[in-house]
């Protein structure tokens, strides 16, 4: 994984690529979740910088640049989340989880999925 920490805009772009697979520059521009008005060339430049950082790769089809993530969501988010828990929550994952639960609107299915993740983690820790 690259040592370069992605910017907020780069994280948005990566999120789109992880969720949708390969996208053109125009697709990325139209789907950016922050709703800011950006020029095509701005998004192209961001993607080119991300390629230099080895976060994405591209191919060209009929003069259209198509970009794909070169790193996984876990490769990027694990160090970011670990740092957040360590620096903001004093290393206490429970404090981070409590804040996340308070700040999120989870439906019953998401809560059940969280319970399953915790159960699976406990079983794994016991070596089952």
Structural notes for this entry:
- By secondary structure, the protein is mainly alpha-helical.
- The protein has helices spanning 8-20, 25-31, 40-52, 73-88, 93-103, 108-125, and strands at 23-24, 56-61, 64-69.
- A 3-stranded antiparallel beta sheet has the order 1-3-2.
- 12% of the residues are buried.
Walk me through the topology.
Layout: H1 8-20, E1 23-24, H2 25-31, H3 40-52, E2 56-61, E3 64-69, H4 73-88, H5 93-103, H6 108-125
Antiparallel strand pairs: 1-3, 2-3
Helix pairs in contact: 2-3
Termini separation? 30 Å
Q: Looking at the structure, what is the overall shape?
A: elongated
> Major β-sheet, in short?
3 strands, antiparallel
- SSE-based structural type: mainly alpha
The H/E string reads HEHHEEHHH
State which percent range the strand residues make up. 5-15%
Question: What's this, in brief?
Answer:
This protein is mainly α and 128 residues long. It has a three-stranded antiparallel sheet.
Structural key phrases:
mainly alpha; 3 strands; elongated
């Amino acid at each position: 994984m690259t040592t370069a920490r992605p910017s907020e805009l780069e994280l948005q772009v990566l999120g789109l690529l992880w969720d949708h697979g390969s996208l053109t520059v125009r697709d990325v521009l139209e789907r950016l979740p922050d709703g800011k008005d950006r020029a095509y060339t701005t998004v192209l430049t961001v993607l080119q910088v991300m390629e230099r950082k080895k976060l994405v790769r591209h191919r060209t089809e009929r003069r259209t640049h198509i970009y794909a993530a070169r790193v996984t969501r876990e490769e990027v988010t694990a160090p970011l989340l670990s740092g957040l828990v360590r620096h903001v929550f004093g290393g206490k994952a429970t404090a981070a989880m409590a804040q996340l639960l308070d700040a999120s609107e989870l439906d019953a299915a998401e809560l059940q999925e969280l319970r399953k993740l915790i159960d699976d983690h406990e079983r794994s820790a016991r070596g089952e």
